[in-house]
Amino acid sequence: MPVSRRVFVASAVAVVAAGVPSGANALPGSPPPVRADLSRIPVLPTDTEADLVRKASGLRPTARQIAWQSLERTAFLHFGVNTFTGLEWGTGDEDPDVFQPTRLDTDQWARALRDGGFKLAILTVKHHDGFVLYPSRYTNHTVASSSWQSGRGDVLRSFADSMRRHGLKVGVYLSPADENQYLHGVYANGSARTPRTIPTLTAADDRTPARFWTLDATDYGAHMLNTLYEVLTEYGPVDEVWFDGAQGHIPPDKVESYDWDSWYTLVRDLAPEATIAVTGPDVRWVGNEAGLAREDEWNVIPVKENQYGRTDWALSYDTADQGSRGALVRARPNTDFLQWWPAECDVSIRDGWFYHASQQPKSVAALTEIWFGSVGRGAVLLLNVPPDTEGLLHASDVTRLREFRERIERELPYDLALDGRTTAGVNQVAVELPADTDVNRIRLAEDIREGQQVEAFVVEALRGGVWTQVARAGTMGASRILRLSAPVRARQWRVRVTGARVPAVRIAEFRLYRSAV
Fold first, then answer.
1. Of 41, 40, 22, 46, residue with least CA distance to 32
2. Hey, CA dihedral for 64, 67, 69, 72, is it positive or negative?
3. Residue 35 — very low, low, confident or very high, per pLDDT cuts 50/70/90?
4. Please, are residues 337 and 43 in contact by the beta-carbon 8 Å criterion?
5. Which of 161, 196, 295, 469 has an alpha carbon within 20 to 30 A of 84's alpha carbon?
6. Residue 388: CB atoms within 10 Å
7. In whole angstroms, what is the distance from residue 240 CA to residue 275 CA?
8. Residue 8: pLDDT band by 50, 70, 90 thresholds?
9. pTM for this structure?
10. What is the mean predicted confidence (pLDDT) over 325-350?
């Protein structure tokens, strides 16, 4: 059937094959139907390879995961006492007065990120040192203990307001590790998990919460819960809550078992639309800090639960074929669930995560390779851009962000398929352009509302009356961008799915470009 829209419905067969609820084949632009959470399914010891593949094919992302994957490019802002001490991992005993940004301008951050093509930014509200970028009731290791702005400064407030003012979503990072709380006998003190009342009101508290939570936690777990409560109730809507799994630099006989279940519960209740990453149920770490996804990146991953509800890999985090058929089988003895758990690719624009004057930003060419290796493989890029000691994004970084956006726009300048005639069939989409045209970039995507199904596909061009293969790849997922080594000139193009987890799949995008680079 001829179509002129960007989303292609392969056929009604695809809907039936994927087990999609009635109404899921609505026209593009229609809201997806309300349905149960299909993002996780248990694995049984008796599951065969066919059982595992069938279960994997039935998984669907949640609405918050779909929204997150559509962002494609997000930003990290590492800022804190390390910016002024020159460290990457602080000690927790820093003098708060070292924090002295002389020209803090979070509007400048927001403008630079917006102009760089970013849609969400995450601030390090608390890094491993425990220094907090807002005046918390639960620690003195904060901006309020600095003479900066006479102790009345609040970086989180300024950050959140600026991001929203310039159209960016707001994310917060709170490190589970806390060197300062260790020095104060709270972190890793061996306390038992007991029911705690959250928020825990302080002696001079001026709050009258409408609701309290009773959640199991250690002494430090309760400290984190109270910190989360402040951040998620006093600074407006938060769109992403980012944890890592770091442990403090503490003696080997001490450990803090994090209260993930309680932390997740509070985040879900206070910020139900927020994505919990990357130690969390919504988003996983890709497994490196180079910003690169796997050649074939699966959103459906075998997972296990440990340490009070933490979602963890059933295989090692750096498994090269994570999510493949073979990986599903190998992981089965250690797997509790198959889960829709997409990858985030984190990397810094400089060598370090915090600003160091001796370092320079990566080149446009390097950032472009990272983009093709992350967004181009179906993952989301998280690029760190650290503010400097003045409280600004350095001019060289701002320039590089703009150049990076402009380079990507030249790489994919205009979708030539928009001028053509598109025909969709079972496991195939074809485009007939108005005339023979050079193409050297191809962008494809599945409709991930119906899961991730494609295991192999080819792109072909009709040349001399013969369909000729010009590219092939494995996974497609939310985004797959292929670069041809040289332009191919043809009028008729098609993509064919040659391997999939269901009999028929839904291809959401088939776009053709002539790079201007």
1. 22
2. negative
3. low
4. yes
5. 161
6. 18
7. 5
8. very low
9. 0.93
10. 98
